[in-house]
Design a protein that fits this description.
single chain; 5 helices; five-stranded parallel β-sheet; about 25% strand
């Protein structure tokens, strides 16, 4: 499953993403979170810690930097779900990400600012 959550600022994209994360963690999935906005990773991690859930996250300055990172592809292969909060995700980046996750058979939730 690849879920894209699009919307303008303040439309609840991050809250929807948090709910997908909670649902997957309840099933016992492992999750990696990637964001170009460290405050988003920190906010989601804080919410999950309050739920007594252990979290790891990483941030990259841009989606392009994330995509070029050698660690990105390594990390995503070992988790059932990858959550990408990308205010800078272009349509081209989104297509690349969807094709990548389809090719490795992994789930992803990607936010895109519209």
């Amino acid at each position: 499953m690849i879920k894209v959550i699009s919307g303008p600022r303040g439309s609840g994209k991050t809250h929807k993403m948090l709910e997908y994360v909670r649902q997957n963690l309840k099933r016992g999935d492992t999750i990696v979170m990637v964001s170009s906005a460290p405050e988003i990773v920190n906010w989601i991690a804080k919410q999950l810690v309050e739920d007594r859930i252990n979290v790891r996250g990483c941030s990259h300055p841009t989606v392009e930097a994330m995509w070029k990172s050698n660690s990105f592809k390594e990390v995503t292969r070992y988790h059932e779900l990858t959550v990408i909060d990308g205010p800078d995700v272009s349509d081209e980046d989104l297509d690349k990400l969807i094709k990548y996750f389809e090719s490795i058979g992994k789930d992803a939730v990607i936010t895109q600012l519209t």
